[in-house]
Amino acid sequence: MRSYTGALIGNLILAAFAGLAGPVFLVVAYVAWVEGAEWFWVAGASGIGAVGTVMIPFSAVRSARQEFPRITRRNRVRDAGPAYGDDTTVVWAPRSPGGVVGARLVRADVLEASFVRYSPEGGATFTTYGGDHDPAEFKATVGLRLRVHDEEDPGRGSGGREVTEEVQVPSLCLSAITAGRLAVLVDPPDAPTPGKVTVLWPRSLLLAGTRTCRVIDLDGRVTDVTRYARRQLEQMRISRSVGGVVMDGDLIDLRRLDAATAARYAAVARDVTEQRAPVTEPGEEARRLAEFLPGEEGAFGSVSRRWSRRGGHLVLARFLSLRGRTTFQDHGPVLDTLFRVRPADGSPAYDVVRRLTVPMNYLAVMHHTRDVVLRVGPNGGSQVVDWARTNLLAGVTTAQVVAPDGLGIPLPRRSEALWPLMNLLVAHGVSNPSPVLDLREPRMHAVSDAVMDTIRGAELRVDEARLWGAAGSRWTVRGRLGEAEEVLRDHLR
């Protein structure tokens, strides 16, 4: 398991080689002084050498913090900012083009998505574009097969027309494709390119539900409109017609709008007939891009026995806000993030701000979860985002357990068994840097029974939830749970 100290030592060596001129100038200054050279030569050489030498550790520390971003008490939020709820997710993505005059804002369903290419030239280093939050170099090209609903209300009229497009997707907006709902502009018949489809990426992120949205009406009541696609589309059309409506985090406050715009928004908010859209539209497997995008593979994670014995543990945090910057790495954008940490000991949650490189494969599934796994130091003073465990928990990678008898047990993506299994392995100091947990290995004997019990418990809880949703009687549920338990015993015995 790589540590901050290891990253610091590695960067210190690299910085020493890169800044070799500093010590060389100090040696030259010493030789000049010994040989009685003029004082200004000695002073100049020693000054340059001192500055260059001092910059070596500063450069090493800066590079190590970027490469291995520790979270310490200094990163905790102290000033009173926006009051974000636990379910809030604010994503500040680059603006979309305005489109031609007369273009209509409609919904498009993603029927199929295929990865085409992604070939930045930055390598593992940080690449910064002055003033450009949306460089083409760091956007994946994706082929889309869309069903565009040319009618403003897709529930009325035709089922839409199919369109095939190749688009460049901002990394922050990849989850809109996986969720399957996009907001698009369709050029009017009198435009130079009639019928042309232009994807509005930030608005698609709203429509997909990755970014949450709430509306405060004129009476002060708050309505959550996240994943109410028809209502949100109509709000987007109103916003576009008046030149934009400001969102404060994920809030639109109608009391701050002019009377006419507020009345139009309020009329939309009164539409209570619409059902909330699913987290992801049917057929997600045909739209999944995470397997083709850069980022760490999901894994149960490595464990240092010394770290585990001294009290190192895992905690869950949840992204509340992600803001794009002008700096990128090959595997993801560098973002200003705000997330809420829930300590394992049950103490009150606290918010943290940290600049992080968020991998693209995680961003592609962020409509499902905003949870991240933090690895906490033994004294609790520092934490590090564990992307391998995070990606396994988020469903970027599928986990599998091989039972002691050799039976393979695939765990569903985002299975509730994953988190207790990770903590179980950490508590026993057992490393498993892969998504396959093979209980036949000798090092797994100490945790084998506990792992199987955890899987049984998680599966039965899922079955119970499903049966309560489908059955109308407590006795029916109990009877069916008994049958399910017998089946699981036979499968997992």
Which characteristics define this entry?
493 residues, alpha+beta, eight-stranded mixed sheet, 13 helices, 33% helix, disordered C terminus
**Secondary structure tally: strands:** 19
C-alpha Rg (nearest Å): 27 Å
| Poorly predicted residue ranges | 470-493
Give helix % range.
25-40%
Span between termini: 34 Å
- Overall pLDDT, averaged? 83
Written overview of the protein:
The chain is α+β, with helices and mostly antiparallel strands and 493 residues long. It has 13 helices and 19 strands. The protein has helices at 4-18, 21-34, 39-67, 174-179, 201-208, 229-241, 259-269, 305-309, 360-363, 387-394, 418-427, 448-470, 474-492; strands spanning 71-72, 90-92, 104-117, 127-128, 140-148, 161-169, 181-186, 197-199, 214-216, 222-224, 251-253, 313-329, 332-342, 350-357, 371-376, 382-385, 400-402, 408-410, 436-438. The protein starts with a helix and ends with a helix. Mean pLDDT is 83; it is low at 470-493.
Which helices and strands occur, and which strands form pairs?
Elements: H1 4-18, H2 21-34, H3 39-67, E1 71-72, E2 90-92, E3 104-117, E4 127-128, E5 140-148, E6 161-169, H4 174-179, E7 181-186, E8 197-199, H5 201-208, E9 214-216, E10 222-224, H6 229-241, E11 251-253, H7 259-269, H8 305-309, E12 313-329, E13 332-342, E14 350-357, H9 360-363, E15 371-376, E16 382-385, H10 387-394, E17 400-402, E18 408-410, H11 418-427, E19 436-438, H12 448-470, H13 474-492
Parallel strand pairs: 2-12, 9-11, 17-19
Antiparallel strand pairs: 1-16, 3-5, 3-7, 4-12, 5-6, 7-8, 9-10, 12-13, 12-15, 13-14, 15-16, 17-18
